[in-house]
Amino acid sequence: MSGLMPLEIHITPGEHPERHLFGLTFNIDTIISTLVAGAIVILLGFLVRRALTRNTEDHVPTKLQIIWESVVGEVNAQVEDNLGKVHPFVAPLAISLFFFILVANWLELVPTELNERAHLLPAPTSDTNLTYAMAIFAVVSVWIYGIRKNGLAYFKHFVQPYPVLLPLNVLEELVKPVTLALRLFGNIFAGGIMLALIAAIPWYAGMPIANVLWKMFDMVIGGLQAFIFALLTVLYFAMAGAGHDDHEEHAEHEEKTPELAA
């Protein structure tokens, strides 16, 4: 036992290779990982589009096409259940967010022997700069959607059910992007730390099954977090347009009532 060397693991949360330009700080690893994830999603989209064109006559879908269509169908079902119809903006946004976050979460699962890190590319979603940017974009889009659907009546929900709750309702609205971003960041960041810890354990070379099992678990967590982010975005859109939809349903009910009475 005395001959064993103490295990030293250096984990530096929040530290990234940086470049400074015009007074701004750029996290190079996050930027590269984000570009790689975006390029993979775009490439997958083109491959699926090509497969659709090729299989128009024989109607034999590829595995990639089946996976893509399954996700698109599930997201469309969630949008239709919550918004009453498949919205031309909400559905593509949710689908794009899901696939991008999924690929971004899985980037860190690619191992490397090129350096001391446990993975080749870090998951860009383990950097709050990216998760905050996506969350702010999603929530601001929800606000714009709600105002366009309901006009100034959109702001009525801030004083419902009682005007005294105005500060709490405003706070709740402002906290949405924070919770949306930190939920994704926390889970992916913790997964990255666990991968680094498992890779540093001395008996890792003799028991690779530990790393394999954790990576499989991390894949499930990455997929679940991508789905939750996309689903919450859809739910926020549904809540933003709820007043407009309720008004339309009430108007339709009033129009049909005289006909039924006659």
Automatic annotation (TrEMBL):
It comes from the Bacteria. SUPFAM superfamilies: F1F0 ATP synthase subunit A. It is found in: Cell membrane; Membrane. CDD domains: ATP-synt_Fo_a_6. Signal peptide: none annotated. The chain crosses the membrane at residues 20-48, 89-109, 129-147, 184-205, 217-238. It is a multi-pass membrane protein. Its main location: membrane. InterPro entries: ATP_syn_F0_a_bact/chloroplast, ATP_synth_F0_asu, ATP_synth_F0_asu_AS, F0_ATP_A_sf. Keywords: ATP synthesis, Cell membrane, CF(0), Hydrogen ion transport, Ion transport, Membrane, Transmembrane, Transmembrane helix, Transport. Key component of the proton channel; it plays a direct role in the translocation of protons across the membrane. PANTHER family: ATP SYNTHASE SUBUNIT A, CHLOROPLASTIC (PTHR42823:SF3). Belongs to the ATPase A chain family. This is ATP synthase subunit a.
